[in-house]
Every structure is written in structure tokens, then in C-alpha cells.
Design a protein that fits this description.
The chain is α/β, with parallel strands linked by helices and 560 residues long. α1 (7-17) packs across α2, α2 packs across α3 and α2 crosses α6 (146-152).
């Protein structure tokens, strides 16, 4: 029996067999990019590995990375692994207090500082005494630089390996429900999840015999991007990874990459659609897409403008996606599929396939995954990508698994006879109105979010006579909020929407009102996580002083 292939084995194969294949493309400003072949990527990683190993840290020492997505993130991760250490990535938007917590909790021995927008505000969170190394695109710092180190250091020779049980990375959750937790992932479980994911060929997209293109822009500190883009590309090899430069250049970055596989989150899929509707009204576009002669021409033009005309497959994760939105993208010819995965199972749980892709469902269990629904309606998962445990939190480990080893996902759901899974909400998000009935906000929010005026929404109402919804208008509509004519039209549309939503839910889930938020929710104001999920507790705290007045007002639609 042959020994199982290790993650670094794949890397060394690509270094040899794909030495001249362009692997990473990094924007460096003013429309310019720098390409790195597999050979160049590994030469850089080997040189940094020599330097890190020479620092004499204990085996398995934690090495932090605080950076936006960039080519040197990949290189640093490989260097950390070859040097015998463990990666701790931190979201590049985190505040100083969270940065300090993660670095101190993980006992990090060194920090790589990369592309960042607010480094002066973040730097006080780095504990005194931690050595730091600056990536090429980092803000100006006095730290030793990646380029200087690799220029003076010889590449690490040979093929250093890691035991399967060694920790490859600590992934700290984005903290949408409180203090971030450090999720431990070992090399053997990462490679198992990655191999199985690739073996499905992602419906024929991520095959080893072809080159495929992906755009890396969702935070690499999050498991979704780390698994689907980085680690899957480590296994496949013949993948060209492009990076986004900034929010302002994102559209150009996407058109440059023209990805064959594109992964995103619901908030961005909605924004893409709203961008299309800002140019072509939704009703007019729907009519055009129903005309056989125009259908393919119009759909192709829209996808080309978005940079998705070459996408053979697209995935959405992180939160539920409205079924109507999935159908809309499919009407354009984009095979948009949903999946379910968590930090705790290395994003390897369920995914839709062309055969099992009912909108509103997250597909079937991936190969090797076992799933069941508890008597309370909770989805329980046992996955080959299952975490080793929570770092320094054996108490949480005990709470998180059933006696027979299934993980409590915290998601509520149901299964169809064909195995397709529907996520209906989060256990912790359920709230009870004064009528004594529990309300699951996520399905109601999906009914709201499909409206062209709305960018995002939150349903709440703990202890109130009925639930309410706070909505954020799309970016193009916000400047018009002071215009009386726009307000009147928006008020009429949202009142109609309220009636439509209430007609689709049980009496105890009906909304009393829709309230239009004055300011958008963002990562910066704490209302969104780094992966753009809403932080309910934060938003509820912000609106709490106004809630009583909203209920006293009889209007269906109100302006905060």
C-alpha cells in the first residue's frame, strides 16, 4: 500500500513539472502586474524558509500574516510550512484590539505585514517584541523586508516535509458572534479535503489536465478563500491565480483574470446584479432575455462586462443566497451553485452540482461527508476536513461534537429525499416575539434582499409584538434619499414588498414594518464581518434607541 500523498509533495511536483508555468499574477499599481511562475514562487518561498528556520523558533511555532490577498501571502505560507511552523492569518481589516488578541492567544513568534489600508491604526495591536517582516506591497515601515531577506539568503535545499498530524494553520473565526476562536487544521485533513474537492473536478472545472484561472479577492484569512482558491490550487497546480489590487480596480481586475472558476459571497452577487439593473431596468432585461434572438446576445454582453464570460462554474458561500438570484444568473448562462462549509470543516461539507442544483438548496453531501438533522432541526456534519479542535479551548471541543463525532454546525436545515440540503437559519439567530413564537430571520431576509432597491437587510424583534426589518439601500440609491420624489416612489415599492413578503410567511413571522437605514453597513463601522456577513448584535445595538418609536409609528415603511 502506497503512502498517502502529502500537501508539500504536490508543491514539489509543481515546482519540478510546472517550473515555467505562470502561477501568480500580482497587480503593482498603475495597471501593471508582476507574474510569478511556479519556479519563481518556490525559489522565493525556499529563501524565506531558510531565513525563518534560522531564527530558531520551536517546531510548530505560530507565524502571523496580516495582509490583504497577494502573491506573497501564498509564498509566505509555503515558507512557514517548509520551515516547520504553523500559519496564523489575520483579517486585514481587523482593529488593533483583535490583532492583539489573535497574536497573543496564538503565541505568535513573528508577523508578516503586507498590503494594508489602515496600518497606523493597527500597529498598536502588535505586541512589543514580535519580529516583523514587510511584504513588497506593505506600507512604509522600518522592518526588514521580504526582498532584502530573499536577496541575501540561499534557498532551502531538499524536500522538507511535515507529519500529517502537524498543525498547518490556525484559522481564527471572523467573530460575527463574539470573540474569535482559533480553529486548528492539520496537514492530513487539509489535503484530504482538498483532494476530495478536486476529485469532484468541481463539475469539470478544476481538472489537472487544463489551466484554469481564478481571482483571489475574498480574504485569505477566511477558510472559504483559503480552501477553494489557495489549497485547491496547491493540489491542482495548473491554475493561474490573479489577485485584485483594490476595490476601485476590482472590475478591471476581474476582466483581466476572466476566471474559469469564480467564487463569491451573497452580498457581492447582489451588487453585481444591481450594477446591471442600474444600466438596464430589471423589467426591460427580463423581457429581452425571453426573446430567443436577443437572449444569448444580451446575456453574453452582460457576462463579458462583468468579466465572467469565461466562467464555467461559479460558487456562492458564507451565507444563504436568494433562490431568485440564482435563477437570474442562470438565465444569463452562468452556472451559479451554492455550497455549505464552515471554518471547522475546512469548507468541505455540501455543494450543489449540475445534477443536484435546486435553487435555495446547498446541494448534496460531498464525498466522504456524513450529515444528519438532529431532532431540534440542527445540521450535524462529520467531514474529512474536520478540525483538530479549538486552540486552547477543550471546553468548546466537548460542546461542539456529539458523542459519535458529528459537529454541531449551529445551522438549521432540512433534507429532501434526493439528499439535497436546505439551510433555513441559524440556531443562535432565532428570536421569540411577545407572541411566544420563534422567528428565523435568514429566510425572510432572502425574500427582502432580492428587491432591486435593497443591498442588505436584517430581521429582528426580540420580545416585540411582531418582527421588523432594517434595510440598506443599494449604493446608487443612497444619494437620492433626501429627494421627496424618490422617497415617495421607494416608500411605495417597499410597502408593496412588505405585503409580498408577509404573504409568503406564517402569521407569527410577518413583518410589522420595513425601516430604511440612514447609513450603510460596513466592515469599518463594525456592522459587517470581514467576509461581509451582517453582525446582528452590533446592528441591533445601533438601532435599539429607535425601536420603540418605530413600533409607535403606524407606517409600513419608515426612514431611520
Amino acid at each position: 500500500m502506497t503512502n498517502p500523498k502529502r500537501l508539500l509533495d504536490y508543491i514539489y511536483e509543481h515546482e519540478k513539472n510546472l517550473a515555467n508555468h505562470v502561477y501568480l499574477t500580482q497587480p503593482v499599481g498603475q495597471g501593471k502586474v508582476v507574474d510569478y511562475t511556479w519556479g519563481q514562487t518556490m525559489d522565493q518561498a525556499r529563501r524565506m524558509a531558510t531565513h525563518l528556520h534560522g531564527l530558531g523558533f520551536a517546531p510548530g511555532a505560530r507565524i502571523g500574516i496580516l495582509s490583504k490577498n497577494c502573491a506573497h501571502f501564498f509564498m509566505a505560507e509555503l515558507a512557514i510550512w517548509m520551515a516547520g511552523y504553523t500559519t496564523v492569518a489575520i483579517f486585514p481589516t481587523e482593529a488593533a484590539s483583535t490583532i492583539r488578541y489573535v497574536l497573543e492567544h496564538s503565541e505568535a513568534s513573528l508577523l508578516f505585514v503586507g498590503k494594508l489600508d489602515t496600518w497606523p491604526d493597527q500597529e498598536p495591536g502588535v505586541p512589543t517584541g514580535i519580529p516583523r517582516i514587510a511584504f513588497p506591497l506593505a506600507p512604509a515601515t522600518p522592518f526588514d523586508t521580504w526582498d532584502a531577506i530573499t536577496a541575501r539568503t540561499a534557498p532551502m535545499a531538499g524536500f522538507p516535509q511535515r507529519a500529517g498530524s502537524d498543525l498547518a494553520m490556525l484559522i481564527y473565526t471572523s467573530g460575527s458572534t463574539g470573540q474569535p476562536k482559533g480553529v486548528m487544521h492539520s496537514f492530513e485533513r487539509i489535503v484530504a479535503a482538498s483532494e476530495l474537492s478536486v476529485s469532484q473536478n468541481m463539475a469539470g472545472v478544476m481538472t489537472s489536465g487544463q489551466e484554469h484561472r481564478v481571482l483571489s479577492y475574498l480574504p485569505l484569512a477566511h477558510v472559504f478563500e483559503r480552501a477553494v482558491v489557495e489549497c485547491n490550487s496547491f493540489v491542482v497546480g495548473r491554475v493561474h491565480v490573479f489577485f485584485a489590487e483594490s476595490l476601485e480596480t476590482f472590475a478591471a481586475d476581474l476582466r483581466r483574470a476572466r476566471p474559469t472558476l469564480f467564487v463569491s459571497v451573497p452580498r457581492l452577487w447582489l451588487k453585481f446584479q444591481q450594477g446591471v439593473f442600474s444600466k438596464i431596468p430589471a423589467r426591460k432585461l427580463a423581457i429581452m432575455l425571453r426573446i430567443p434572438i436577443l437572449n444569448k446576445i444580451v446575456a453574453r454582453k452582460i457576462l463579458t462586462t462583468l468579466g465572467l464570460d469565461q466562467a464555467k462554474l461559479a460558487f456562492s458561500g458564507s451565507a444563504p443566497l436568494p433562490a431568485e438570484l440564482i435563477r437570474w444568473y442562470r438565465s444569463l448562462g452562468l452556472q451559479l451553485l451554492e455550497g455549505l462549509g464552515m471554518t471547522e470543516d475546512f469548507a468541505y461539507s455540501h455543494s450543489a452540482t449540475p445534477e443536484f442544483s435546486e435553487p435555495g438548496y446547498v446541494g448534496i453531501a460531498n464525498p466522504g461527508v456524513q450529515a444528519r438533522i438532529s431532532p431540534e432541526g440542527e445540521i450535524l456534519i462529520k467531514s474529512p476536513g474536520q478540525m483538530v479542535g479549538y486552540y486552547k479551548r477543550p471546553d468548546l471541543d466537548a460542546e461542539s461534537f456529539t458523542a459519535d463525532g458529528f459537529f454541531h454546525t449551529g445551522d438549521l436545515g432540512s433534507k429532501r429525499p434526493d439528499g439535497q440540503l436546505k439551510v433555513t437559519g441559524r440556531l443562535k439567530e432565532l428570536f421569540k416575539t411577545s407572541k411566544g413564537k420563534y422567528v428565523a430571520p435568514a429566510p425572510i431576509e432572502n425574500l427582502l434582499n432580492i428587491h432591486p432597491l435593497i443591498e442588505s437587510s436584517m430581521v429582528s424583534g426580540l420580545g416585540q409584538p411582531a418582527a421588523y426589518a432594517v434595510v440598506v439601500l443599494g449604493e446608487e440609491f443612497r444619494p437620492k434619499q433626501a429627494d421627496p420624489a424618490f422617497r415617495a416612489e421607494a416608500q411605495a415599492q417597499l410597502a408593496k414588498l412588505l405585503d409580498q413578503v408577509n404573504a409568503q410567511v406564517p402569521d407569527y413571522e410577518k413583518l410589522q414594518m420595513i425601516v430604511v437605514a440612514k447609513d450603510p453597513w460596513s466592515i469599518e463601522n463594525g456592522c459587517l464581518t470581514p467576509t461581509m456577513k451582517i453582525r446582528r448584535s452590533r446592528i441591533e445595538t445601533v438601532v435599539e434607541p429607535k425601536v420603540e418609536a418605530w413600533y409607535a409609528n403606524s407606517s409600513k415603511v419608515q426612514w431611520a
